[in-house]
Amino acid sequence: MFDYPRPCAGMVVLKRESVLMLRRAHLPRRGWLDFPGGFLEAGEDPEQAARRELREETGLEVGRARWLGLYWDRYFLRGFGYFPTMSFYYVARWRRGEPEAADDAAAAAWIARAELRRHASRFAWRHMATVVRDVLRLPARIER
Known about the structure:
144 residues, seven-stranded mixed β-sheet
């Protein structure tokens, strides 16, 4: 069997000096921290997938999104095992509204950028530490 990667997309949402994080509602990694995101649907553009996942999981919509990076990881499915994932991440500024956890999210909260690394032991996926590193390297004010 071939070990083809599954494409995923995520959206990092910044609000002043905070970042939106979710607590996962389902397995795998139920209860762990995650960014809004998920698997791409067939033929879906990665940025549109990141926007769709953000809307489904929080009800939020963002304006202009900026490319953050591509991150590799792996995902576990019971009865199947592990398979590789390639996650396309974007970053955008919050505009309005409060996130309401839905779909795959049990809870949503704003976490101060300065506090992100303290939560690393609760990140759902290994690649999230690298995403956080890249977010912390961004200028305090990115384009809107």
